[in-house]
Automatic annotation (TrEMBL):
SUPFAM superfamilies: alpha/beta-Hydrolases. The lineage of its organism: Bacteria, Pseudomonadati, Bacteroidota, Cytophagia, Cytophagales. This is Alpha/beta fold hydrolase. Pfam families: LIP (PF03583). It comes from Hymenobacter fastidiosus. Gene3D superfamilies: 1.10.260.160, alpha/beta hydrolase.
């Protein structure tokens, strides 16, 4: 194992990727596939306009509220967490300490609330640490325990992300609003502003914690995330570069399979005449935007019966797989004919594909993704290049769907950010 370890830390990562076997692929798929599982939660009826971090109310003197040591895990234990893939254990280099942080962030109404996340710190590196912000994917409301701050066996933070931390990154993994310390609030699903601000404020809390614990950090910040985590990663990258580049310079980011072009995605859903397995996810998105942007329409405006009554009682219930059956003609026509100005504005507020990033950014996406279509990443790549971005790459995963692509995403995204470390 010692020889393998030396090879892994000396070879270029693309060479390492070629040596990882099918058992590793199977493991990564099983762990990460949950990121793309779509579902939804109940709604709160407050009308609120979203604000990004730093807008509106005065920021607190400190973001970090408390920290709790969850545990310290030796390298041998981390390697043993992946018994199906012995070679994957060779990626493990350092023991890690895992902490649960609670911190201040703003809810969608601009008010400060308590949020939480996990902080993974490698031990004994002997050098200043780069920071990796990891944005998790969709978490079902009945699987709230998968949020990073719970750090439970079987979750991606407990396994794959712990291995990433053990290679020498301090990993900041926010729960987002709606999980952990903020679980009393509805999760603002696929709402760019809150995903970005909750992630940024977790980074602030992590930096404060590092100062208290005398953990030396360098100025490198890397961003990773898949599915909703890919959308959150893109939103965070945009926020950091456009408003907080001096505070948190982005070194490189690698979002995967995010719904970056919400307006085009809405048109696609309402136009396509075929079964769509993800319509229940769109119900959650509509509920979030209807609430957060103060539109506050009744369910019967969006959904045909009997699903309007059914969804009002249980937003988590099953829906038909064809848009024409689920959505009312009035709603469909309002979007496609461009007359529903309120919801169209909400979609535009969450179009995060058309801007000019400066740091290296790689867009990973399966070309056969029928859950979050590939055009989301392609549109982002094209729009960014038209704006003069020179360090944006489109990394198609040929033939991959939303679930089968997670293995290649994980390996290639880590390889991508590692070259800038």
């Amino acid at each position: 194992m010692g020889v393998v370890r030396v090879l892994i830390h000396c070879l270029p990562f693309n060479v390492l990727v070629n040596h990882l076997n099918k058992r590793l692929a199977r493991f990564v798929f099983l762990v990460w596939a949950g990121l793309a599982t779509a579902s939804f939660t109940g709604c709160s009826k407050e009308a609120a306009m979203p604000r990004l971090a730093g807008e509106g109310a005065t920021a607190p003197d400190a973001y970090l509220v408390s920290s709790t040591l969850i545990g310290e895990y030796p390298a041998s234990e981390l390697a043993a967490r992946i018994p199906e893939v012995p070679i994957a254990g060779a990626l493990v280099r350092y023991p890690i300490r895992v902490y649960r942080l609670t911190y201040r962030t703003r809810n969608t109404d601009g008010q400060f609330i308590m949020a939480s996340g996990a902080l993974l710190v490698p031990v004994g590196t002997g050098q200043a640490l780069p920071v990796l912000s990891y944005q998790h994917g969709t978490i079902r409301p009945d699987e709230e325990g998968r949020a990073p701050s719970y750090y439970r066996s079987g979750s991606e933070v407990w396994s794959v992300v712990s291995v990433l931390a053990s290679t020498g990154y301090m990993v900041s993994a926010p729960d987002y609003i709606g999980y952990g310390a903020s679980k009393a609030f509805p999760h603002p699903y696929e709402q760019a502003a809150s995903l970005a601000s909750a992630s940024l404020d977790m980074l602030r809390a992590a930096r404060e914690f590092a100062g208290q614990q005398q953990v030396t950090l360098n100025q490198k910040h890397f961003l990773l995330g898949y599915s909703e985590g890919g959308f959150a990663t893109m939103a965070l990258h945009k926020l950091m570069e456009e408003q907080y580049s001096a505070e948190f310079p982005v070194t490189a980011s690698a979002p995967g399979a995010g719904a970056y072009h919400k307006s085009a995605f809405a048109d696609y859903i309402l136009k396509v005449d075929k079964p769509l397995s993800f319509l229940s996810t769109y119900v959650w998105v509509l509920d979030t935007y209807n609430r957060v942007y103060g539109i506050n329409r009744p369910f019967a405006y969006y959904y045909n019966q009997p699903w309007a009554t059914q969804l009002q009682a249980d937003l988590y219930s099953a829906v038909p797989d064809r848009a024409a059956l689920l959505f009312t003609p009035a709603f469909q026509q309002g979007i496609l004919n461009r007359t529903d100005q309120a919801m169209l504005a909400a979609f535009r507020a969450n179009d995060i594909h058309d801007w000019r990033p400066k740091a290296p950014l790689a867009l990973f996406h399966g070309t056969a993704d029928d859950y979050v279509p590939f055009f989301n990443s392609k549109d982002a790549y094209n729009a960014m290049h038209l704006r003069g971005a020179t360090q944006v790459e489109l990394r198609p995963i040929a033939g991959g769907n939303h679930f089968s692509s997670v293995t290649e995403y994980t390996l290639q995204a880590y390889a991508f950010i590692s070259q800038y470390r």
